[in-house]
Amino acid sequence: PLDKMTATELRKYALDAGEISGVHGMNKEELLSAIKQVKGIKDEGKHTEKVSMRDLKEKAAAMRAKKLEAIAAKEPQAKIDILRKKANRMKKRTRKAA
């Protein structure tokens, strides 16, 4: 909940805690780290899942194959578009993972 608070809310919270000085001169990141240090909260980074390039490319190829099957089976255009967009998202994720 601290990360979602605004800088003014964090300042008010820090003033109420009373153990932090210079609250008005701090920005949001400094306030967060000071509050977490006083409260004894360990700051853990974002938990990102490491995805291998090979898995992403396999998933993209599977989506393209499903799209071709849907076209051959005369599926509705909306379903074909969804499969196309999923394949494109996988392709974009491979560029991000590189």
Number of helices: 4
Described by strand count, sense and barrel closure, the largest sheet is:
none
Low-confidence stretches: none
**Distance between the first and last residues' Cα:** 32 Å
Average per-residue pLDDT, rounded, comes to: 87
One letter per element, helices H and strands E, the order comes to HHHH
Gyration radius (Cα, Å) is: 24 Å
Structural class: mainly alpha
What is the count of β-strands? 0
Shape: elongated
What is the strand content?
under 5%
Task: Give the helix level as a range of percent.
Answer: 55-70%
Number of domains: 2
TL;DR?
The protein has helices at 7-17, 28-39, 53-72, 77-97. By secondary structure, the protein is mostly helical.
Written overview of the protein:
Helix content is 65%, strand content 0%. It is built from 4 helices and no strands.
